Amino acid sequence: MKAVFYEVKKYHIEAVCETPMHVGTTDTEKTESEILIHPVTAMPFIQGSSISGVFGEYIKNYFDTDIMGFNPCDKEVDGRSSVVFSDALFQSNKTKIETRPHIKIDSGFSTVHSENRSGQVFNIVYISEKSEFSFDIYYFSGDKNDESEIIEQAISALDSGEIKIGGKTTTGCGKVGLKKVTKTCYDMRDANDRKLWINESKEEQEITNDIKKSDAKSDRYLIKVEAKADKLMVKGSFIDSMMLHSMGYSDEKYPDSMPASNPNSCFIVPGSSYKGVFRSRITSIAKYMGISDDFVENAFENRSRVCFYDTVIDKKDCKINTVVRNKIDKFTGGTISKSLFKETEISGKFHINFSVNSKERINSDNDVIWNDTEAKKLVGLMFLTIRDMAIHAATLGSGASVGRGFVDVSEVSVKKPDGTEYSIDFEKKDMNNESKSFINECIALLRKGD
In whole angstroms, how far apart are CA 7 and each of 147, 201, 273, 374, 422? Predict the structure, then answer.
């Protein structure tokens, strides 16, 4: 009988959430979409099948191999996969949970969904940024087909953000960073290694630096916007009284409304807010330029096309201002007696980060539905939206009618998949010839229509 495998490589990965993560149900008809809780540890966890799925998709896209398929030696002997993933377990003392409200949107009209009014607003539970977890990957290789370098490339892609875990990835969730990676090799033709394999007790070799130095393959345009706002209010996640005290707010009566925040005492502009603003503005621009609604829907509905990340604003980098307002009678347009309320707005500099995927996609009829040309068209629409923000034609968050959400853009930079970078200095109204050529190329594609 043939050996099932000749060598086992075990990778132990310790990672930290660089953005919030959602692993669990996403049923928007429920009042709250919860995360998965391990039945033994009573802590959040990620199923091994979920990690296997995102790793398998990445390897399928960038490597011509069946490494995630069946046994490497003889498919008729054993039907096991060549790569096995354990569940990822979170550490109890380094894990926080947060809840964010969401609104059900009608994708056809980009407005609040009206089919079920009681289900328009729902909550989603997230594992917070800076939470830590660990998991194992086992690679079973044959005699002459060691492809462990592909596994290591995929682990590197996890660190670079090419691989994200869980749901809501288009709004920045699921990006993780590597804290430590170890590798252990067991040679099944060696009697001593076979004994050590029983308890997995062989000494580990740390390869964290090698993994981080590895260049994971990418097809994404990375866009970064430097901006500042004098009055910003993005309502969102829950903030408690302890957090207000830690931010130096001493009024006995706390504000009725605060900007969105995370459990690490930082204000945030959620990626979902950016996605809503950019999608709405891009839809308007696309209609004006004669670009079909199908293009916008194809860009924003598919989870891999575009991704927006949270902006995290440390309390040290912003100013907090609380204002007193009064409620308005919508029928008379006058003030409602004794109906004062407090709102807190923030001001300061911040960054907007998002990416556009240029990987070619085809449908079941072998028609190209997305490629680098489509990606550049979307990048062009992004530039026009950023321009509108810079001239105060588009706002972030709520309260535009009272002067909130207007953003001053200072600089925009774009990094192509090949590493080439371009930038625009909005303050000096300047850019070099290479940047001008790239932007003109993107805008020209829009003028050609579909």
Answer: 12, 15, 48, 44, 46
In a domain, 141, yes or no: yes
Listed as own residue / partner, the contacts of 294-301 with beta carbons closer than 8 Å and 24 or more positions apart are: 295/374, 295/377, 295/450, 297/107, 298/369, 298/370, 298/374, 299/374, 299/378, 300/170, 300/275, 301/107
The answer to whether residue 280 is domain-embedded is yes
CA dist., res. 54 & res. 48, Å (int): 10
Both structure tokens of 237? 């996640």
Mean pLDDT highest for which of 12-26, 232-246, 353-367, 373-387? 373-387
Residues 139 and 279 both lie in one domain: no
Confidence at residue 261, expressed as pLDDT on a 0 to 100 scale: 77
Taking the whole predicted model, whether its pTM rises above 0.85 is answered as no
- The answer on 195 and 334 residing in a single domain is no
pLDDT tens digits for range 370-385: 899 999 999 999 999 9
Looking at the chain, the number of H-run helices and the number of E-run strands are: 9, 23
353: domain range?
220-447
pLDDT over 70 at 114, yes or no: no
Q: What digits encode the pLDDT tens for the residues 269-315?
A: 888 889 989 999 999 999 999 998 888 888 887 666 899 999 888 77
Looking at 191, 213, 235, which one is the last position of a domain?
Answer: 213
Residues 206 and 231 in one domain: no
| Within-domain flag for 335 | yes
Reading phi first (left if > 0) and then psi (alpha if -120 to 50, else beta), residue 253 is in beta
Q: Is the domain of 176 the same as that of 267? A: no
Same domain for 178 and 237, yes or no, is no
242/188 same-domain check: no
C-alpha distances (whole Å) from 217 to each of 21, 161, 210, 220, 359 are: 23, 11, 15, 9, 11
Q: Domain count of the chain?
A: 2
Distance in angstroms (rounded) separating the CA atoms of residues 89 and 38:
8
Q: Does 437 share its domain with 340?
A: yes
Contacts of 117 (CB under 8 A, 6+ apart): none
Residue 320 neighbours by CB distance under 10 Å:
18
Assess whether pLDDT exceeds 80 at residue 180: yes
- Could you tell me where the DSSP H helices lie in 289-413? 293-301, 372-390
3-state secondary structure of 364: coil
Residues 260 and 152 both lie in one domain = no
**Two tokens, residue 47:** 């199923």
